Structures are given as C-alpha cells and as structure tokens.
Amino acid sequence: MTTLMVLIPHFKALHIGMLLLWCSGLFALPLMLARHDPVIGQTDYARIRRATHFAYLFFITPAAVLAIASGTALVFLREVYVTWMFAKLVFVATMVTFHVWIGYVLVAVAEQGGTHSAPAPTAPLVLLLVAVLCVLTLVLAKPDLDDIPLPGWLTEPRGHQMPFDVPKR
Ligand code: HEM
Fold first, then answer.
1. Which residue owns the Cα nearest ligand 1 atom 41?
2. Which end of the chain has a smaller Cβ tally under 10 Å, C or N?
C-alpha cells in the first residue's frame, strides 16, 4: 500500500466533516437572509447582517473549498473515473451555483439596504435539498450508469503526466 493510499480515510473524514459544515451553512444562510428586514430594528439588523457575512466568509466558503479539494483528491486516490461520479459532479455544480448566488444576495442586501430584500427561502431550499439528496444517493448507492454514453475526453486517458504519483491498483 503506497503512502498516499494510507491517507484515504483521512481525506474522507475531512471531506465528510467539511460537507456537513458546508451543507448546514447553505441551508441556514437563506433563512438568515430572510431575517434581514429593517423592521426588526437597527441593532438586531446590524447583528444578523454581521453574523451572516461572518458565517459566509469564514466558515461556509472555506468549508466548501476544503470539501471540494478533499473530494478531488479522493477521485484520484480511489480512481473513481466512473459515470456516477460525473453525475454527482453535475449536482455538486448546482450546489456551487447556489453558494455563489447566496454570496450575491448577501452583498446586494448589504449594499442596497431598504431597496433589495432577500428572496423567499422556500423554493431555493427545496432545490438545494434535491441537489444534496441526488449527490448523496449517487455517492452512497454508486449506481451502475455505464449505459449512459460519455464523451471520449471523460473516459480516455489524455496522455498527460500527473503532477504527482497516482497509486497503482
Ligand atoms: C467537487 C466536489 C466533490 C468531489 C470531487 C467528491 C468526490 C468524492 C470521492 C471521490 C469520494 C470517494 C468515493 C468512494 O470512496 O468510493 C467521495 C465520498 C463521499 N462524498 Fe464526495 N465529492 C464531492 C462533493 C460532495 C458533496 C457536495 C457531497 C454531499 C452533499 C459528498 C458526499 C460524499 C459522501 C457522503 C462520501 C462518502 C461515500 C462513501 O464512503 O461511500 N461529496 N466524494
């Protein structure tokens, strides 16, 4: 077993830990943004605005980066170049889009206070829940999706050298 293979459980633990933080943040932020209502009073408004900004910048975004980085490392260490993995990445892209959109709303609400209010959270949260459930179903059930045709560049080696050693089976 190569040195890198020994790291797989550690990367997986990091991956799952950061996912918990990232996903919980993605669910909490639209609810926090919905509380950005000037009628709650200046002090409470300032407090919830700072808390939302702080959570997005210092917890949820770093957790997303670490979840994606550890997941990317796992792709190479576990050599999962398979269809369910690519399908999972499509739904992860939906989560990343949601993350970026939350950042946009956060800035818009902060900078255009009074004129820009946060959207109702229900529909975005249902969409997020569907994406997270699809990701979890794909990675946990690992369904055989080999009948779905994939372009060659996803399935054939490109002939380039990796910048690090990939463990052999
Ligand atoms: C770019 C983003 C991501 C990449 C590249 C990635 C990649 C991976 C890889 C390669 C594994 C190991 C699979 C195996 O051992 O067979 C894994 C495990 C896992 N991933 Fe991700 N992942 C990403 C994002 C996510 C997200 C957003 C979620 C959940 C919402 C998630 C949930 C999980 C879970 C629960 C496992 C453990 C599965 C198991 O051990 O059977 N991943 N991920």
1. 140
2. C
Domain boundaries, the chain: 7-150
Distance CA 4, CA 166 (A): 8
Contacts 24+ apart (CB under 8 A), 135-142: 135/88, 135/91, 135/92, 135/95, 138/84, 138/85, 138/87, 138/88, 138/91, 139/84, 139/88, 141/84, 142/82, 142/84
Q: Which pLDDT tens digit goes with each residue over 110-161?
A: 887 666 677 888 999 999 999 999 999 999 999 999 888 888 887 777 888 7
167: confidence class by pLDDT, cuts 50, 70, 90: low
| Nearest protein CA to atom 10 of ligand 1, as residue | 75
Q: Is 68 in the pocket of ligand 1 (CB under 6 A)?
A: yes
Per-residue pLDDT reduced to its tens digit, 68-102? 999 999 999 998 989 999 999 999 999 999 999 99
The CB of 94 under 6 Å from ligand 1? The reply is: no
Cβ of 63 less than 6 Å from ligand 1:
no
CB of 136 shorter than 6 A to ligand 1? yes
